[in-house]
Amino acid sequence: MNSVPDFDDLPLVEGMPKGCAWGVFDRDGKKDQVGTLNFLTPDVVRNAALEVKDGVSISLNWPLNAMNKLNIPGRLAAQHKILYIPESMAALPFEQGKSWDDELSFNTQCSSQWDSLCHFQHQDSGLAYNGANPDKEALSIDSTSYNKMPTLDHWHSRGCIAGRGVLIDYASYAEEKGIEFHAFDGNRITVEDLEACAVHQNVEFQPGDILIVRTGATEVVDNMNPADLGKMAAAKLTGLHGCEETARWLWNKRFAAAASDSNSFEAYPPLKPDGSIGGMKDLVLHMYCLNMFGMPIGELWDLKELARYCKEKKRYSFMITSTPLNQPGLIGSPPNALAIF
């Protein structure tokens, strides 16, 4: 990791803004497809295992149907179909016995998720991480061995995620410090805020960490009241401040990945360079993290129990494992994430 340039020292990539890490992880003439997961070296994983002291594991996965009450148009809500096998497999020439199957249909952005490095393209060029050029045909591949797109199935070739997680519980920090804060007020959490919260929690970042930031968003949705519903209608989401300074900090810390319980990880709506309000295409950290760094973004993670346990034990680092679904060309996936203490 010491050989990886800092943000301001990254070699310029033609047609791309400063801070583009394309090619940094390429080896032996082969284009990299997993980005900052390369920071999860054997030494990093071994050290992460030292975090396991209590024998306690905590799920970070929100129910698949948790957002059905706030379904976003154009994204299929989670649907669960129960199948009684003697009926569903009646055509088979043998008796099934009393037994059950089920089927799931859902958009991979509908609950806790990882965004792959194809999820958000560089808007001017249309390219994804490391110069990949995704389209429906390229993403509809049926075998990872032929897949040239940096999608989530490639994680399985390197054992997915096992590393050290660090929780920045900004929701609790703001409450303790008397900072006006709500998960649906569009608060912009700055680098200064993140560093101050880390000091407050006695967190020391290490290269290869998986950063997790709590805003309380999923808890607001779980316990929705009329006032919260009114805030949600304004479509303002609290998250990391989407700007170059935050991007520089994320890269220079050598995070292997970053996640949050918010719907967008970064504050929404984003700000354009001139300070005016932007739209989805203007998301700054999505462009830097997913597209230019190759840093996966997790959203809508369930952090309530994790925050409670961290506060109780007064330690905010732990081992984390995450295994997305293994489907060729997968753009998003439930994280299937565990924090292990």
UniProtKB/TrEMBL annotation:
One of its GO terms (molecular function) is arylformamidase activity. Pfam families: Cyclase. One of its GO terms (biological process) is L-tryptophan catabolic process to kynurenine. InterPro entries: KFase/CYL (IPR007325), KFase_sf (IPR037175). Belongs to the Cyclase 1 superfamily. This is Cyclase. It comes from Fusarium circinatum.
